[in-house]
Structures are given as structure tokens and as C-alpha cells.
Amino acid sequence: MSILDQVNLNDNAPVTARTARPVLNQRSMARFALYVLAVTLTLWIILPLYFITASAFSTRDALYDWPKSLFPNPISFDTMDFFLNSRGVYSSALNSLIVGLITLALSLLIGAPAGYALARFIFPGRDSYKLLILTTRAFPIVILSIPLSVTFLNFGLYDTLIGVALVHTALALPQTILVTSSIFVAVPNELEEAALTLGCHRMSAFTKIVLPMALPGLAAAAIFAFVLSWNEVFAATILTSQNRTLPAQVLGSLSNSSLPLRYAGGFVLIVPSLLFILIIRKYLLNMWGRVVK
After folding, report:
1. Global model pTM greater than 0.85
2. What is the mean pLDDT of the chain?
3. Is the pLDDT of residue 102 over 90?
4. pLDDT-based confidence at 72, cuts 50/70/90?
5. Cα(15)–Cα(166) distance, rounded to whole angstroms?
């Protein structure tokens, strides 16, 4: 190797190292920014839940102290006990559970076949149907309050749990249809066709092949439907007067109540939906794990 070649190699080596460092720095900064964003979003969700929980189990005097303590000291159950023993809390919580389960069942029974049809069949107006599903969620329910009340009064559905469940089902159907449609699209059509060639008819191929692989998506749709029904307050307020769900009961009874009772009511509204999500989430992850295997 000549002296000139050695000089050229020595000149190129530092240039390569210098060009590699900015690339590594950019990757590190992008990863750091991603971590910061993830932590920020996590704190944005967790901190309000934590402060509501801490305030619900604090003494009444501690809520008005400044500066506030991060941990309730001492822990007090007086406010929660007073709220849970208030009139109508247990009955409205049971009403919310019944309405949520009815909404879950109806949204899956109606939305899953619609999602399967969108995923498997090509028919005129399919894209327009998808757009129509999305536009139903953009229509404000406030405009429908008076027509809904009059219609429910005429059909004898006013102040009934099934009436509230029907409205919640209508609100949950768009996302149920779209979620199940995307899940059924991900299931290979060749497996269903192979089952048909081996003697299965359409329904047995669906129940034996497609449905087990789509169960995680159905569980996700069930989570959305139940949480939407549990947290919905406007329709439950305008369509009921006695048989109210828990959010409507809390809105009606705690609007003029003290601050500790409001925190207790918020905690009672949060806990059941979180427990339901945790239970379904475990089943959801287990199902996806088996599908991947």
C-alpha cells in the first residue's frame, strides 16, 4: 500500500466516526422523547385517578388543608360509608350493572354479524355504510333528547332499564361494528374456505374456526360497550326519573353536595369499570397469546 493510500484511509476513518455519532444521537433523542411522551400520558391518566382515590379516603378537614398531602393521613372511611349508605346508591349501581350487561350483549349480537359481513362480503354501498356508521357518532344526542323522551313515553319504555340499554346500544354499535370488522379481516379467509371444503357449513365454520380466533376482538368490543354504558350519563338522566343508573344518580344527588361526597361518588364510578377492564384485559391477553402461538 502506498503512502498516499494510507493518508486517504486515515482521513476517511474520522469522517466515518463523526457521521455515525449524529445518527446514534438522533436515535437516542427519539427514544428519549418517546419515553417522555409515554410517561406523560401515563401520568395524565393515573394522577387524576390517584387524587380522586386519595381524596375519597381522606378526612373532611384534610381536603381543605394547604399544602395538601400526597397520601391520606389518617385514612378515613367516613365519607365513603356515608355515600354508600345514601338512599338509592346500591339500587342505581345494580341498575348500571344490568344496563351495562344488556348493552354488552345487544351490541355484540348486532354488531358482530355486521362486522363479519363488512369483512367477508363485497356488496354495493359497503363504503357508504362504513361512513354512515361513523356519522352516527357525530350526531349530538342533545338534539335527540326531546324526540327520544316522547318516543319512549309512547312505547312505554320511559324510566325503564331496557329503554336506557337500547340507547346505550345505539351509542356502542358503531365502534363495535368497526372493531369486529377489523378483527374478522385479520382472520385468514383461507381457513374458513378450507373448513367449508372439509364438510362444514357456513355457521359451523364460523363457530369452530373464525369465532375462536376473533374472541380477543370481541372481548375488546365488550370492554368498550360496557365502559361506555357505565359512564354514560346524559341519556340515563333524561330517560329516567326513578330507575336511574349510578352516574345519573350521582349527578342528581351530588350536584349540590359537599366536596368530600363528590370525591366519594367519583371513586365509586371509577372502580367498577376499572375492575371490569382488568378482568377482561387478562382474558384478552391470554387469548391473543394463544392465537400467536
Report:
1. no
2. 78
3. yes
4. confident
5. 69
